[in-house]
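Please review this pair:
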Amino acid sequence: MSPARSEAAAVDRVVFLLAWAAFASSAALRLCDPMLPALAAEFHTTVGGAAVVVTATGLAYGFLQLVFGPLGDHFGKLRVVTGACLASTAGALACAASPSLDLLALARALNGATTAALIPLSLAWIGDAVGMEQRQATLARFMTGQIVGLVSGHAIGGFFAEHLGWRWGFVFLAGIYLVVGLLLLAALRGQHAAPAAPARLPGRYRMVLGQAHGRFVLALIFVEAIATFGVMTFIPAYLHQRFGISLFHAGLVVATVGLGGLGYTLFAARWVKGLGQRRLARMGGLLLGVAFLMLGLGSNWAWGMLACTLLGLGFYQLHNTLQTLATQMAPEVRGTALSLFAFCFFLGQASGAGLGAVVVDGWGAEWLFLGVALLLPLVGMVLARDIKVRRRAVKP
């Protein structure tokens, strides 16, 4: 095998392991949601009281994004991901062994803090290791693990809570972290340490935020998160209330978002090559608009299934394009840039849920869906125009 092919094969192996790390990170965020009744029963509290474990995870996950990016730039992104995987093993086992709700919340915060490094620094490492012509398709392959984790996290948590005991769910998660961490540790052997980024912590953030295009991408991902994952919070309750289906049934309908996302990853390489980033951005925004329009105007729950599938397809077309641009925001401090990207997405989700609640309570979920149905195609067009302008600017 030629050196070039050998290096490409090594990169593919690492991307495969990073996809499993993303699976564990995404599943960890959703694992406790269906466990809340079991936790409430064991620790003699209400479901609302048990939800402190979800809050602790989310807060730690969101704010530690701002820490791990600079660490990755300084010590090496793959090294920090490997260390975070092994540390997450300890955090998950601590959850399994927690004798009280307070200690479980503390252990979940630790798990959320360490698993926060896995996705953004993996994206940054791919940005370092893969050329721009192959990067978007490679990022799409990596995203497969993240999508499957988001879709299956609830199912994994519910299965263990109902059949084997909620503690075994964390043991299962710890096993994935441990195997991936050890395999990444083996992959690190023989690699040279990456040079540290040429700036201290405040300087690294200035290198990202000090450029207009960096601020543009971060603002757009914030808006995208508000209008997609933030608004998706209200879809199950809307389907339940409007069409009279059970919450479980509504949850299954929303799970088809993951099917749409997986559909994108299967054809991403072909679409990126055939359509290019500009058309993908426009198509993603348009599909999202159609999806939310169908949710707002559909006459039965079956329309919701089709809408959610289109929602997943359109979201990952748009989001994957933004991810690819984010890997070029500040190549010298790519870990910091991708951590800021992840933080803005997390903040947008939280903001979207809060703003959406005001609209839903005041006017109804239909008006919320119709509003973002108008906004998201505009986001796609703005992104497509920016790509066109930047390409013209770099032409000789």
About this structure: The chain has a mean pLDDT of 82.
